[in-house]
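### Sample
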Amino acid sequence: MSRLDQALVGLALAGIAAAGLRPSVCDTLNAALPGLVTFPNTPLYLQESTYWSNRQAELQPSCFVTPRTAQDVSKAVKIITSRNTPFTVKGGGHTGYTGGSNIQDGVTIDLLYMKEVKVSKDRKTVTVGPGNRWVDIYEQLDPLGLSVVGGRADTVGVSGLTLGGGISYFSGSYGWACDNVKLYEVVTASGDILTATPTTNKDLYWALRGGGGSNFGIVTRFDIRSFDQGELWASSLILPGAFNTSFIPLIQDFAVNGVKRDPLAHQYFVMAYSADFGGYLILSDQFHPSAKTIPEPFKPLHQFAPVFSNNTRLANVTQLSRDIHVPGGHRQNFAVTSVAATSAQLFIDYTQMWKELVDRMLVKAAGSHLLPLLVIQPIPTHIIELMQVNGGNALGLKPSDGPLMLVQLSFEWSDPALDATLETEANNMINKFNQVAKQRGLYKGFIYMNYASRLQDVYASYGLPNALKLKLIALKYDPFGRFKSLWRGYFKL
Ligand SMILES: Cc1cc2nc3c(=O)[nH]c(=O)nc-3n(C[C@H](O)[C@H](O)[C@H](O)COP(=O)(O)OP(=O)(O)OC[C@H]3O[C@@H](n4cnc5c(N)ncnc54)[C@H](O)[C@@H]3O)c2cc1C
């Protein structure tokens, strides 16, 4: 090829790259990781663009990288950071908002093929790849009579849930998911592959327990505590929404007194508006890892009649997680706050405030799909005590803060024109909830990352010392700020 030809080819390639048709970083990744890079307009690309929320699915990265090993992740990180390319990481892809774990025109590292599930000989540890969904693990552990502290819904990702905290059926026994990770394998911004345990890279270990993804490193392996587990007792009650004023005091009493009588009992309460059910309704989901009949703290909840449905059963975790399946294919938003669990009246008042918001939003939705939820779930004091093991986690909760109640707003909708309105209105509602709680001396302020809106300041809610410590740890493992500037999505320090 003559010099002129070479120059023309070079110019053409540069033109193609500049036009964003096939950016050269993806070609370089493709050369380094053959067969592990997916380009637009291919069937695999469409498959990898599957996210729980359409707000994420509609973004179009320049390519997906699908590593098989930690070494692949390391290679990808080195190439991406050396090219100064914005990127993100997808675990189970259940973040609701735009850009949580997908990116427009950058690179999405999709961990979907890193699906190892390996039980140790002594059955006390399960090594888990970051691309697993919880049901993948439960399907393998149930036949062995084992389980782990993991997510309650089947297709949610192991990675995001565990890195942000992780509320489980088994939290009453063992704390949150992040409190049960024995070892993290992590690819840092330099491409180094480190392990973090209570004794090795202790600071990183602490940060990853609730400090979330997007800041410290890409986790390529979790070693999680496992334990013997058979079928659980579970009950899902669906009742008309009008029962809320008599039902909510029982939920509140459970969070303060019921769990003292039976610390393993676990539940959450949902108020929903569903056109299919003809209006507002209540869903009460209750679980117990060892009971065979209704556990004593739940008995008051079973006195209500008529109920729309009562699904009380013994089932394994795989089945329970499937029962809670929430299909994707809509637009999604969460927002959350936390308050003292001591006043039933607060939750009754919140329900009324939320219903007024929903009535307004239903008018705006003008008949298009809108599913609003108000979710209330306890964080009992003994669970906060369980969080203090192995040096504690990054969430900043102290036993003296408990018992708490998480109050979460969720909107599922179909019309993109409602995105900004629903996000802002949910945030405003949370601010109003906080004002009311402050006036009554019940405000706690902890924002659970995995239920938060992108408009919320999650790290500030962990308390200034923890927020500063997390920043310093991020700086130590990312001294040149590569992840800080290039890794997009979720909550940044
Ligand atoms: C239907 C449903 C049910 C849920 N149930 C529960 C529940 O029972 N308990 C609970 O606590 N929460 C629950 N959640 C919230 C859930 O924990 C969060 O949505 C969580 O972020 C999902 O993780 P993911 O891997 O699927 O998400 P993703 O969107 O893939 O990832 C979330 C964030 O983590 C980062 N990330 C992903 N993988 C890695 C990695 N390997 N290393 C570093 N960073 C990474 C991403 O970049 C992103 O910033 C639920 C959510 C939904 C939608």
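Residues 232-464 form a domain with the Vanillyl-alcohol Oxidase; Chain A, domain 3 fold (CATH 3.40.462.20). This sample (FAD-binding PCMH-type domain-containing protein) is used throughout the tutorial notebook.
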